[in-house]
Design a protein that fits this description.
This protein has 377 residues and is α/β, with parallel strands linked by helices. The chain has two domains: 63 residues, Aspartate Aminotransferase, domain 1 (Alpha-Beta Complex), CATH 3.90.1150; 256 residues, Aspartate Aminotransferase, domain 2, CATH 3.40.640. It is built from nine helices and ten strands. Helix 3 packs antiparallel against helix 9 and helix 4 runs parallel beside helix 9. It is globular and about 65 Å long. The two termini are 33 Å apart.
């Protein structure tokens, strides 16, 4: 049998979907929740790097990467090795009951590589939505406030708390009202498609800030009642939108002036994807809370909420997760960070710049291309 590294892509051996895939698709239609948004009828059998083989032996290039989870590709041998080694020791000891060094080892590393030279704490969950739920609870608990500001086009999860923040597709909210949290959505600082009129010389970022201060604070959300502003440094599901350079600096200023917590969602944009470890690093801003997931677990479920130390001074039992910070996921995360720091982040920046240059040239030749945007890959 050929290995995936020996196959020249694409390798299409059957009609698509193939006969075995059709059998699984029929079972799936009867047995699995229809709420999943499948983009293609691919029934995966195995993967290696950027390739996926389906159950009928067809091989594809994977441009999805498990929705930004498989940042280092499928079945990375070094990650597989540490997962196997840890599984032989123990696969689970709940961090809610006992201690194990894996959790503190990863916490020390994350505290070291995240922006801000101040004391920090870490809470472990299993997903991006869980990471954001912990951030919202920490914001309410530490401020005593219960209102939030988020952005149109945002995606932060589909649990009840995070769904209140998410504003990218109506289908994600349909049938699930009323929303659990008091959230006001404002325009994101999209340099290409921006709905607010600007004064002469006014940047998109400063216009959003003026809208928050002159409209939202005066009509909808008293600043003294606002617990947090939640933002993706680069919007993901909202269109992979890179905001104007001053946008996050303006949000930081507003939060500092009113005692509001700045929560940055790096679930999709973090872990080197933009050419820096965190997308927020491009903008010179130190957030109060960072939410991480997806690529951090090396393919395994892991969510992390990292906060300023004073924002996580809650009482014992206030928040916890049975599986959060699972030792197998943590060793995969440690290895993922090690590999990224070995030169892949710089490579991501260079490759992204190269691709943007080519796309910019293509835009000059084709009027149908309205915009080319992105950071890294």
């Amino acid at each position: 049998m050929q290995t995936l590294t020996e196959i020249k892509l694409p390798e299409i051996r059957t009609e698509l979907p193939g006969p075995k895939a059709k059998e699984y698709l029929e079972k799936d239609s009867r047995l699995i929740s229809p709420s999943y948004t499948r983009s293609y009828p691919l029934i995966a059998k195995r993967g290696f790097g950027a390739m996926i083989e389906d159950v009928d032996g067809n091989v594809f290039l994977d441009f999805n990467a498990g929705v930004a989870v498989a940042a280092l590709g499928h079945a990375h041998p070094e990650i597989a090795e540490v997962i196997h080694r840890q599984a032989l020791e123990f696969t689970h000891i709940s961090g809610t009951d006992y201690y194990y060094p894996h959790q503190t080892d990863l916490a020390e590393k994350l505290i070291d590589i995240t922006p801000g030279d101040f004391e920090k704490r870490v809470h472990y969950g299993n997903s991006g939505a869980e990471a954001m739920e912990a951030a919202l609870k920490a914001a309410i608990y530490s401020t005593g406030r219960d209102k939030f500001i988020a952005f149109r086009g945002a995606f932060h999860g589909r649990t009840f708390g995070t769904l209140s923040l998410t504003a990218s597709r109506a289908s994600q909210r349909r049938g699930f009202g009323p929303q659990a949290l008091d959230v006001t959505h404002v325009p994101f600082a999209n340099p290409i498609r921006f709905p607010l009129e600007r004064r002469q010389g006014e940047t998109v970022g400063s216009r959003v800030a003026r809208y928050i201060e002159e409209t939202i604070f005066r009509t909808t959300v008293p600043p003294e009642d606002c617990a947090a502003i939640i933002v993706e440094p680069v919007q993901g599901e909202g269109g992979y939108v890179v905001p104007s350079p001053d946008f996050l600096l303006e949000l930081r200023r507003i939060c500092d002036e009113h005692g509001i917590i700045l929560i940055v969602d790096e679930v999709q944009s973090g872990m080197g994807r933009t050419g820096k470890m965190w997308a927020i690093d491009h903008f010179g801003v130190e957030p109060d809370i960072i939410c991480m997931a997806k690529a951090i677990g090396g393919g395994l479920p892991l969510g992390v909420t990292l906060t300023r130390e004073e924002l996580m001074r809650w009482h014992v039992g206030a928040h916890a997760s049975t599986f959060g910070g699972n030792p197998v996921a943590i060793v995969a995360a440690m290895k993922t960070i090690e590999i990224l720091e070995g030169g892949l982040i710089d490579h991501c920046a260079a490759a992204g710049e190269y691709m943007l240059d080519l796309l910019m040239e293509s835009r000059k030749k084709h009027d149908c291309i309205v915009d080319v945007r992105g950071l890294g890959l």
